[in-house]
Amino acid sequence: xxxxxxxxxxxxxxxxxxxxxxxxxxxxxxxxxxxxxxxxxxxxxxxxxxxxxxxxxxxxxxxxxxxxxxxxxxxxxxxxxxxxxxxxxxxxxxxxxxxxxxxxxxxxxxxxxxxxxxxxxxxxxxxxxxxxxxxxxxxxxxxxxxxxxxxxxxxxxxxxxxxxxxxxxxxxxxxxxxxxxxxxxxxxxxxxxxxxxxxxxxxxxxxxxxxxxxxxxxxxxxxxxxxxxxxxxxxxxxxxxxxxxxxxxxxxxxxxxxxxxxxxxxxxxxxxxxxxxxxxxxxxxxxxxxxxxxxxxxxxxxxxxxxxxxxxxxxxxxxxxxxx
Length: 324
Description:
Blueprint: E1 7-9, H1 13-35, H2 39-61, E2 65-67, E3 71-74, E4 83-86, E5 90-94, E6 100-105, E7 110-114, H3 123-142, E8 152-155, E9 159-163, H4 169-176, H5 179-184, H6 194-206, E10 210-217, E11 223-231, E12 238-245, H7 253-267, E13 272-278, H8 282-290, E14 294-304, E15 309-318
Parallel strand pairs: 12-13
Antiparallel strand pairs: 1-2, 2-3, 3-4, 5-6, 6-7, 8-9, 9-10, 10-11, 11-12, 13-15, 14-15
Helix pairs in contact: 1-2, 4-6
C-alpha cells in the first residue's frame, strides 16, 4: 500500500463567515431584549450568540476533510464525532459531479461529500488528490501477493469479511471438525483433513466462480467463521451459499455479516441466492427467513444425522425480497 502525506481541506469561507454573522445577529437581538426589559429572553439570545461564536472558532480551526494514509476523516459539524472511512472500505469515488463527491463503499453504502462545504480554491485539489490516492492504491493492491496481509472485502457493523487465505486452513479444519458444525452443516461421514481443506481453499482462491470469505470481529480481529458463495453462472447472477460459525455463536455476528454482504452482491448484479438447511438447524433457518429467504421445497429424509433420516429445506432469496 502506498504512503501519502496527510492533507487537510478547509471548509467554505462563506459558510464559516455566516456563523459569525449569526453570532452578531443573535447578540444584537439579546441586547434589544435587555433594553426592552425581557432579561430571560435576552439571556437565551446571548446563549445562542455564544454557541454560534464557539462554532465559528471551531470551524476556523478544524478542517472539513483530512486525508491520511489510513483513510479519510470527515468533520461535518462541531457537535458530531468525525467520521472515519478507511481506504480498504472504499470501492470507488465518483468525482464527475459539480455539487458533490460520491464514495461507493464495499458494504454497498454511499457517502456523499458536498463540494459547496469546501473552500472554493481547494475543491479541484481535493478531487485530484482523491483520484490519485485511489489509483495508487489500486496499483499497489494489484501487486500484492495472494497470501499477504488480508484486505477487507466487506465491512459490517461488528464484523468484517475478508477473502480466505492458505494460512486459514488450520482454522477451517478446526471449525469443520466441531461436532455441532458437522451435525448442522456437514455430513457425519465427511473426512476433514488439512490436505483436502487446503485443496478447497486453493481452488477458491484461484477460481472466479467461488467466493470464500472469513468472518472477523472488528474489535478483536478474531476470525470466527466462514461464508461460501458458489456462482451458478458466468454472469454471477445466481449463487449458492453456505456458512458456519466456529466460534462466538448466537451473538448476532452471522446476521451482521449477511446483512452487509447481500446488498454488496446485489449491487454487483446478483439476482438470486440459494441455500439449504437441515430441519434440525432452527437457528440458521430463522436467520435466513428473517433476511427474506423463502422456503421453496423440501428434500424428504435427504440427510442422516447419525440417528435418523431428516429433511433438508431448500430456500431462495431474490434481490427484491431481501430484508435489511
